Amino acid sequence: xxxxxxxxxxxxxxxxxxxxxxxxxxxxxxxxxxxxxxxxxxxxxxxxxxxxxxxxxxxxxxxxxxxxxxxxxxxxxxxxxxxxxxxxxxxxxxxxxxxxxxxxxxxxxxxxxxxxxxxxxxxxxxxxxxxxxxxxxxxxxxxxxxxxxxxxxxxxxxxxxxxxxxxxxxxxxxxxxxxxxxxxxxxxxxxxxxxxxxxxxxxxxxxxxxxxxxxxxxxxxxxxxxxxxxxxxxxxxxxxxxxxxxxx
Length: 248
Description:
single chain; 248 residues; mainly alpha; 52% helix
């Protein structure tokens, strides 16, 4: 009997669980936690724009490197290149060909089906000056608005990195425990892209606040818009389905 009240059987059970966790973690892509932080005063930070803030954060840049390194390991070149292209420029290409008449038609249909409620036509869809260029880099987008999570420049990057790491741990678990092999490329791509249009939806304003997200089809608009973007860019259907499931 051990002195702390844990008997020998429980002690060995705990050791086995810990050992399995260490073994699983060793198989995951490595992510350094020795993040470099650029010292800055509050006054200096207030002079930065959202991109500079993200780039000055060791937490954000470590997460960004982890995402990039993991995407580089995707085996399917169609998926790998498609994901990398979006990370490089998460532009709202779904807006191409959507003129005022088409936008009105889509708006009317969504309202009729009650998939768009209490949203004026002029507020329907985030603003886009150039449909082939993202209004900001993926790197600088927040993870959400101020009443939700990761609401700082680069928040979407740290949020995505953690989701990716947890998802790969599940991939390893299903392989090692159940002898069931999931599609690793789909696991990576769906998690990396699940919030791809937060750079479009949560644009930073001149006052330093991010745009308020509206509802679309009963959920935050970035959900539907992100999946639509992946379909529009020709990514595989199974990846798009997994991407949609990331929010459920």
